[in-house]
Amino acid sequence: MVLIKEYRICMPMTVEEYRIGQLYMIARHSYEQSNNGEGVEVIANEEVNDECSFIPKFSISIQTRYEDNNGTSENCLGLTSEESESRQVDFIDIAYDEIKPHHYKEAEDPKFYKSEKSGRGPLPEGWMQTQQPIMCCYKSVNVKFEVWGLQTRVEEYVQGAIRDILLLGHRQAFTWMDEWYNMTIEDVRNYEKDMQEKTNMKIKVCLENTEESEKAKETSQPQTPKSPKTPKSGSSTPSTEGRSWFNWS
């Protein structure tokens, strides 16, 4: 059975604010997470529809909708009755759900962060029931891996990885609010373009440095001495031909 999860991520902002904050977060997050030659190199940022897959039996489908509420819409994504019955609804709490220890930063913790420009935060327990303004990002994630014996494990792993990304990214979108709060959509698009260029350059430099380091290692490695040849049996004196640094006599 295909694993369908509907993530509902509430944010202490309006939908219009979220659209700007999300673009800012993605651009900055991509730059910060691009290290050691790994990351996302942006070739073109445009709408695309491509049905092909390099792994025929693996696919991920994500539907998204934003609404100015705290996650109370039951089927805003227009799922079929069969999909609605099989889906798992998962509320992501950006303040109180645990993130991976290596991603934790106190400055990016909504439990402690207070926006100077908007006055929002810190977020107390139960904030999703009392916060105003508030909006919700609804995401229906459909993961399909049709390989017998591995389907359940792979689908659950992918869903878990997507959830971790959503949690971290939305925490950052809120705790970076003062950086994007006064931006217009044009401002954030310009920022996005600038960060894409910086990210591409960062990846390029890291790759070049890695290649140079590998070449340096290859040239600095000492040559391995040849193994000595064993003398033929029955011979009292080993042949001097091909004699190595080790004397068998």
TrEMBL record:
Domain Phosphatidylinositol transfer protein N-terminal: 51-197
Comp. bias intervals (Low complexity): 219-240
Region ranges (Disordered): 209-249
Membrane spanning residue stretches: none
InterPro entries attached to this UniProt entry: PI_transfer, PI_transfer_N, START-like_dom_sf
Pfam families from the UniProt entry: IP_trans
GO cellular component, one term: cytoplasm
GO molecular function terms attached to this record: phosphatidylinositol binding; phosphatidylinositol transfer activity
Annotated protein name in UniProt: Cytoplasmic phosphatidylinositol transfer protein 1
The organism of origin for this protein: Papilio xuthus
Record lineage: Eukaryota, Metazoa, Ecdysozoa, Arthropoda, Hexapoda
